[in-house]
## 1
Amino acid sequence: MTPAAPEPPPSRTIRWFLALVVLFLGGSGLVYEYCLSTVATHLLGNSIEQFSIIIALMLSAMGIAGMAQGWIKNKANLAAIFVAVEILLGTVGGTSAVLLYLAFAYLEHFRFVLYLLAVTIGFGIGMEIPLLMRINQRWQPQLRHNMGQVFSLDYLGALGGALIWAFILLPLYALDKISLILGLVNLGVALLTMAIFWRQLTHRLALVVLLVSSVAGLTAFTLGSPRLVHTARQHLYAQPIQHQLQTPYQDIVITGRGARLTLFLNGRLQLDSEDEFIYHEMLVHPALMALGRPPRDVLVLGGGDGLAVREILKWPSVRRVTLVDLDPAMTHLARTYAPLVKLNGGSLRSDRVRELPPAGISDAKTVRTIYKYAERPRLALQRYKEPVAQVRVRNLDADLFITNVPDRYDVILADFPDPRSPDLAKLYSLEFYLQLRHRLRPGGIVLTQAGSPYATRRSYWCVYDTLREAGYAVLPLHAYIPTFGPWGYHLARYGTKRPAPAGLPPKGVRLRYLTAPVLAASSVFPPHMQRPAGKERRISTRLDPRVMRYYIKGEPLSGPRLFAGTAKR
């Protein structure tokens, strides 16, 4: 019997095509995992849980797919099956972000859809590489060379995908657009595979019909998704949505009717114009009053809405305010969105403040001075202006700012979101508070919001213990805010002298909530909000973020769980 002639080596076009496909698959698989996990984090919070579960599910499904491809005995069908996998993966993956959002808005069992999508996409990704290895085996029969070529390109593709995700896709595109882009590229790979392997394909007509149907369906879905998402988003909020913006850091939504304004970040309530003055007066004025001297330089960490700066600028002695907020879109909104500008008194308006790029640290040239017209009639008629304060806005991570900027301040106000994730918990850590000490002038004051001493009592007092461990004398404070319920702060001074705000702010500082009796009562805690029994200090560090664990667990309640900040308002 005459032996079969060896199959001729592939053309350069086929070799390059297979190499590029493997590179793309390595990158796209990783981006699908990141995209799905990030969407789930924005919807559910707790990034560690979402990334861990979703990536684990996808990897498990990839392993199952690797075993399942072994059931394909007929080698002639490999190219056709690969094309079908790419078409289905492009269709499901391309619509995954929007489907997740719709499921979150309308379905009670949202997690079932989330995990089903993770398993489905993971299974498709897991089928790709084994099929390509078996196709490549025709020209590279030795296993060690075949595996070496495919896996090396796959891993390099994963590196490229991670870099493209972090520095191109996430900063420039919304998550739904990223998944749609990936889906369209998957369909493009399917089309090119059909063109190059046309003669080797089986079931050509079925593949063509499937590809055309998927392209048409994904195109129609892309065109209709903005309306679907808008309707679903409004379904999550009780009040009409007035403004919405998706940034690389968060989903910003402003709702309200008439003059009322409510701000949500990632579906969590941040402020309501009806009672935000309680929160911000408690955040700002006790610290300035406790300083014991006229405050001049104030640092605000977080607070991109400009409301804390509004309160600070009421003090005539303040000459410099530095606001550090991670998201430039939030500070831009606070300077340009008219209802928010009206609420914050124009404290961050663009004609007064210069905003810096996210990676930058400002110098003296980036400072804008805020003026006010003179109050004396003669000078006012002459339009005479006198400087009030210099305001700087710096869009970078607060931890990076504290570590690298050598400035010192009289007062530092920490207006961070609650410590629900590791990247937020580090801003409540021992290491962070130790760094803050070096940014305070002698006798300087730190005031941080610390969550609810009722619904998250152990988390609140963990912040207290951590500040004390860092060498601060701490005065706990709390106030009742109708929107959030009982809410807590910690007023701290480095050293053994406990800060004690006394008296009232200077003449001309008009307050709506804070009075001397109210301030005195704010340091008195009822038994159910006092520090839990036990002498052991509960310290939160970067390696052991206890404050996050306490916050996520919350407090045992006998009725339905109370959780301030949900989108149902």
## 2
Amino acid sequence: MSNIDLLTKVFEAFSNSSEGRYVYLTDLKTGISRWSKNCVDRFGLPGEVMQNAGDIWEEHIHPIDREEYHGQIQAIMEGKSDEHNMTYRAKDKTGEYVACTCKGRVIRDDDGNPLYFAGTIENHGVASEYDHITNLFTRFKLLGHLRELKAQKKEYYILFIGLCNFTEINNVNGYEFGNKLLKLFGERLLEYVKSSGSFDVKEASVFHAGGTKFALVSTVFDSQKIKDIYEELSDFARHSITIDGTPISVNLAGSCAHVDNFEIDEHTVFSSGLMGLDESIYEKHGELIPFDSLGTDSHDKIVIINALRNCINNNFEGFYLCFQPIVSSVDDTLLGSEALVRWELEPYGNVPPNKFIAWLENDPLFYDLSLWIFRTAMRTWKEYVLKDNPSLILNINVSYIQIDKQCFRNDLLSILDEIDFPSGNLCLELTERCRFMDLEFLRNEIIFLKSHGIRVALDDFGTGFSAMELLINLPIDTIKIDRSFVLDIENKKEKQHVVKAILECARNLGVRSTVEGIETKSMRDVLREYGASTLQGYLYSKPVRIEDFVELKLDGLGRNND
């Protein structure tokens, strides 16, 4: 019987894999391997029988995980180890990374000679627990970890760290430079943890908490160790960072807490940590802030956040939508509207969206709210507007929290189908924080959306979006110029030059433009002269409920103010 025949019979004797569980068996003398057909199909491998399968498989493993994988396999092939046990990310044939746990063992003969290396690979699905940029665990993984510690009644220390001047660095040096900074800082934080002793990963873990924020959670560190780590990182960030030969100085902010109250849920801990960062940034010049030092205002925020979360769970109580017209710069005719969410509930009153959206954006329930906004806005627009004006476009904001979720594509398309909303009448406005996403990932998502007829706009253009780089590299339809650029533009030559250049650049690239914040006829006239495509602002209407929106005259809104 040939080695391949023997290998096949042994393999088939224990091959009982499910769709997401694969088996492999390697003849250590010949280097010939047999792998599950499901694995071959999922990852686009050359075949079920392969020579040097370890090298072939290594090419599928994420570069960050590859070195450790290579070391383990090499130790087995050199006879230095009999076991392989590792969780890594592997790229399937669609180009997406999935999280896999691979376990294997060397099978020896009676004389102790190695015969086979056999094991299993368990596919856990798309590796969304890892952040695209930093390769650290995500904030969702962080919340799950905090929930586990609460359930186990384990005390822990948590340290939040924020990069204060990241936006300025990003704007000066570019998008990719900013990504490299986030990745470098995350790696350094991880190094500090790993060099602090020998312990299980769950006893001290590092997370990317969203945007420019990081978190360290430890059940073994004490308060002094947390302070030491923060001071060392602050010194490193100020004096020792060089990227692509460019030295930069980064200012940090920090907040920390010892959590021993198991009545507090993970969302309260997370929100409190972010508020501590705000106090560290805006009031304490980067001083490390313990959570329990937060003042009354911060306590009130936590109360409101709790109320917001309860309202989302209670069928979105208190939330409603307003619509603000978007008009042609040529003749002020109505072309569409932006849907804007509002929240009002006693005794809190009407809380401004620029506050509660920022508070909620890091909360898992934010995604539920975002789907409610999509569904409500589309249904309302179709019922009140499209039946008589089928060409009008509905703009809805979408954040990186939504796009980053694996289910976002299907959820959005399902809502479109459910409401039978024409995709060509929908424009998604990517909010400013989408700049933190991997550029290639974001580009692919935009291409997918546009393939379904959905338009895409960059919101807050020019504020913190590494604007020109994204304008060049992303296949967007429209840029929305922030109102800060046009405030008092009639009297400020500097703003006139900047806005005129942005509009000309967009026009040359075949991208439309919307200018927000148009409050006066003189502002409108300047932007009309510079060639803006569309305009939005109080000159035409403040955001109003749909019943008031349909009462607006559909033609010449701006001329009504002449």
## 3
Amino acid sequence: MTNTFGYTGKILRVDLTTGKIWTDDTMKYKDFIGGEGMSMKIMWDEVPAGTHPFSPENKIIFGSGPLCGTGVPCSGRTNITSLLPSNPDHSVSSSHMGGYFSVEMKYAGWDLIVVEGKSAKPVWLRIEDDKVWLEDGRWVWGKGMFDAMAMISSQMGKEAQIAMIGPAGENQLNLSVIRTGASHSAGGHGGVMGSKNLKAIAIKGTGSVKVAARPEELMALDKYMMTIIGANNQHVVPRFPHPWAEYTASGSRWTAKKGLYWGAANPPVETGECYPEDMQSVGLRTHKGFQDLGAVAEKYTVSMGGCAHCPIRCHSQVRIPQLEERYGIDPNVSNTCVGYSGPNGIMFKGTPDLPGQEKGEQSMISKTLGSHLADDYGVWCNYGQMGRDLNWTYTHGILKKVLPADEYASISWDLLEKGDPAFLIDFYDRVANKKGELWHIADGSYWIDKRWNLGEEYWAYDKNKLWSKLGYPVHHANESQSQVGALVSCFSNRDAQNHSHSNFGAAGVPLELLKQVAAEEFGTPDAIDGPMDYTPMNQGKANFVKWALTRTMLHNSLTLCNWMWPMAFSPLKSRNYRGDTALEAKFYSLVTGIPMTKEDLDRAATRTFTLFRALTIRSMGTADMRNKHDQTTSWVITATKDKNGKEIPQFTKGTDRMTQEDMEKGRGLVYKAFGWDEKTGAPTKATLEALGMPEVAAELAAKGLLPA
């Protein structure tokens, strides 16, 4: 280790079976940047194909990156990598959470935490700088996350940061989360911690992160970035008219305006006009209570919360007295986006307002109640898919058929039918605690189809939003940047979690400006289409796909928030609304002292994404990714119909559907852009070796998994 600026230089290793705790060297993985990249390399080296996610031999890795803990804006994410229980091949995947956990990890002196084995009894991992030991966890096992966090904090102190599972993770549900803080969750790997009898990791650090640059240099770049940053999802155009704004965009999360308040603050805080040159009002731009819970939530909003080093603050912190009055739970709730809408999706019959309620009040109550319950139990909604799966299996009579009659009769379906959020209390208890047969709704779509025989109609129904027969849902796919979003979604082992392309296309500037920047980044203005006005696949779109895939991998490795990055656009007319897509490299170079261009970092991210592809090939036991992995469900390539029942042909204005032929062309162009085999979509020996991974090529070749 000659240079550890930005890095601590140390990886914490823990074997729960033996109780052994030791230190590894971060820098031997430096070619993979940090976070997700380094975690993928460890998984390749140490977890063989065929390992079950819940076996002691599996590892779970908590990763930070070199920018985390340095003050770089929006750099507080934690990457969690392991085998994914809900994936049919148990392929490797990553989940992500915000908050302050990864920053505290860096302050304690650790870049990554790698956990393997299984404890004989419940434990929690205690980290105080370089002092690390296992504590008896039996006293917090079985507790909900809110109580258990308070209990551990009583021992560690309120400044400690904790990553934890609830009963859902303890019971090894496929769809369970790891949570930190009041509202930051990583979906999918909670059961892995549960299988290891690991309730929590609690960290308290008193150190700092060394930075190569002089403080004034880093501060100058921070200030420069603040002239580029927009609102949540890097929306750089406000939703409502402002005297300074040349443009508005109806879908923008820049929701601030005169007369819109954090109404429950003391005193209430007006969001106001938020001139883009005013750095002090950046945190007022995004009113997520208004965005996620509706206009009624304005008077219940106390403030916005968020993650370390983030000026945007995208988690609404609300106080809903009705939660305490009706259900006896804490009225203080914090969450964002699908953290509210996913649990509320369980109430698929709707939540109509009751007499005397304000418009939207019952929906707000349902969302906040569901958020509290899901967070406390640690149940993952699978990006809203759990609600859609409940809808399908209930309305099609499947649950009545597969559940024992006494169990079905004991469920308060009448509450669901009339839109009473109290249904959620019983539902989450049954699911998280594995009661009866209903809990299998948390196995994930692939597995419940196998168990309950849902049939092709289930997969083909567009409103189920199932993207792939691997069992994961749409997450910014064909509805987001045409073939770009569609193809991005084909390369994941779970919902795509990719916001690089959606942030770019939904920045809010007019299409003409989007096309200008697309030409600068991807070689042609035709890389981007207007909404529901798609053109056939072209090379520029393939370049856009590769950029989106590698930039997201880069952000998860540095670790930056991909819900905000990349900074392709700016709210400033004086910049002609241009952002700066070299910012990641500029920050990396200043922080680490290792000069990197954006092309250098993109190549490093390409290396990591190619390794991720190799891991998927190894777990699936086939090189034929084109046909075995990257295909969509049938609705994606089925023409929609207008209100008169007439088909709307693909590539006609008014539809977002793809064609199989065009998607196949797109797959080939993206494979070619990565240097992969165009027939199979698998990395070639030459590409793997060119990216510095001859050992990966050798292992795939030995298993017969390299393309011919």
